[in-house]
Amino acid sequence: MVEVAEVFERDRWAEAELVYGTTDVAHPGVARVLGAPRRAVAGPVQALVEPLGGPVGARALTPAQTRGVFAERGWGTVVGFQTRNPVHRAHEYLMKCALEMADGLLLHPLVGPTKDGDVPAEVRMAAYEAVLGYFPADRVVLATLVAPMRYAGPREAVLHALVRKNYGCTHFIVGRDHAGVGSYYGPFQAQDLLASLPAEELGIVPLRFDNAFWCRRCGAMATAKTCPHPPAEHVALSGTQVRAMLAAGQPPPPEFSRAEVAQLLLDAYQR
Amino acid sequence: MVEVAEVFERDRWAEAELVYGTTDVAHPGVARVLGAPRRAVAGPVQALVEPLGGPVGARALTPAQTRGVFAERGWGTVVGFQTRNPVHRAHEYLMKCALEMADGLLLHPLVGPTKDGDVPAEVRMAAYEAVLGYFPADRVVLATLVAPMRYAGPREAVLHALVRKNYGCTHFIVGRDHAGVGSYYGPFQAQDLLASLPAEELGIVPLRFDNAFWCRRCGAMATAKTCPHPPAEHVALSGTQVRAMLAAGQPPPPEFSRAEVAQLLLDAYQR
Q1: Which residues of B belong to the active site?
Q2: Which residues of B touch A226 (CB under 8 A)?
Q3: Contact A166/A82 with Cβ under 8 angstroms?
Q4: How far, in Å, CA of B122 to CA of B102, rounded?
Q5: Selected catalytic residue, list A12, A32, A67, A85
Q6: From the DSSP assignment, how many helices (H) and strands (E) are in chain A?
Q7: pTM
Q8: A216 tagged catalytic
Q9: Does the ipTM surpass 0.85?
Q10: Residue B114 pLDDT more than 80?
Q11: How far is the alpha carbon of A243 from chain B, nearest alpha carbon, in Å?
Q12: Quick one: average pLDDT of A239-246?
């Protein structure tokens, strides 16, 4: 609820260009900005939206609440992980690599509006709960971030990092093409933008990661930085490939997804 | 070669107490100090010892040389790994976790005098070369540190970190009971000492790790921080157990050692 102090006209084209680096309406973030009313209101916020219900809402903690949990647990360093997708073994690997060097992990999925084709938040929540079974309970907090996904790539990566700082994280995982969509942004553009910002202004340490996969020769999860073997040895599936498998009633292999997650996704696709 | 400017008497007992926190002669570092002549010389160093020969010497780079290699490769962040043991999968896992977030890795085994029962440097060098086969060649440098092992635990961990800073590393892996021996030091005493030092004075970022193992349920390497499963699911062997297996002509399992490393150790034990 906003107490209206001002009514103004947005320059939606300029806004799209500045935030997304493009005015291409095929970009879901650009479409969202250009599709919004031209007229906007501003003023002091009196109340925020009502909390979500169900399993998604049950995990919606405020920044004060997550900070409280971290303090209770005595965590000096906390790594934040943003996702809008189910957690597969690749994401679990990145989170665990970072957790090895930190006190705790905040698994912090975004559960606001996402684009068509993304897995619904309710299905993802069940999958996140299942993945918790592969972490010590005293080292991870699962909480939801109720916010829309903007697909703004580098600039959204900075926003994602700052938001996690507010939630009490000291470190933030930045993946390949973080918050990207299509081929609007380079694979390491988000990591480079974050690295270019003064550490004391950012106030949260970005941890850069490449895409992970299972390597049969290594007998381990790895990335191109830690595995010397050819792609033929790697178990890696694109989002498109996973969706095709699920649509055909076939679960992704255990090297790609935990069996519990694969089953939940399969059930959701068969509905 | 030292130009003698001063001859003085060391207080070896006080030195042992200050460096090792004990004067117990069963401690190999204490024994080394107490066994050294009481009289010592000091003065400007004119020449250092002659370089080592063989495969160990071939990998002996000076700090200027490692810094040169890092600069050539354009590495902004380099993780240093100290070891006096063969590299098993647990160490490979810690190194790869750290490497995922850095540009490069310096595998920097200490090859000076070590205590009885430690694996000889020549055998270890062959094992390190074998382990390189599990890393992308452009992400790792193997170089030797010609220095005695002191087994001074926390204080030696600080020395190890500072030495690696001199070699051009920005980050340094600190394991459980780093540089410890017997039960003279607590498992996290070295990590706590490093964490207590002001970051700007230390000048290198310590990365704290727990002991790693293969977990059958996770299907992955992990530590107590990242795996919730009971010890019965873990493949972990003590140094004593590994030595007993090797003495019996039995290679450690592939979850513990890379096959190439297991074979090299087996050959060395059968000689």
Answers
A1: 84-85
A2: 96, 99-100, 135-136, 139
A3: no
A4: 29
A5: A85
A6: 11, 10
A7: 0.92
A8: no
A9: yes
A10: no
A11: 24
A12: 91
> Bridge-partner residues for A30, per DSSP?
none
> Among all residues of chain B, which has the CA nearest to that of A218?
B134
Average pLDDT, rounded, for chain B: 93
Q: Per-residue confidence at A49, pLDDT binned at 50, 70, 90?
A: low
Position of tokens 């069940």?
Answer: A126
A100–B225 CB contact, under 8 Å = yes
Give the separation between CA B208 and CA B191, rounded to whole angstroms.
6
Question: In this complex, do B136 and A225 lie within 8 Å of one another by their Cβ atoms?
Answer: yes
Residues B179, B156: Cα–Cα separation, whole Å: 6
Contact B209, A100 (CB under 8 A): yes
Q: Which residues of B touch A218 (CB under 8 A)?
A: 134
Q: Please check the confidence at residue A200 and state whether its pLDDT lies above 90.
A: yes
Contact: A137, B96; criterion CB under 8 Å: no
Strands (E), chain A: 6-9, 39-42, 78-83, 104-109, 140-142, 171-174, 205-208, 212-215, 220-223, 234-235
Are B219 and A96 within 8 A, CB to CB?
no
The tens digit of pLDDT for each residue in A12-40 reads 999 999 999 999 999 999 999 999 999 99
Kindly tell me the sign of the dihedral angle through the C-alpha atoms of A13, A18, A20, A24: positive
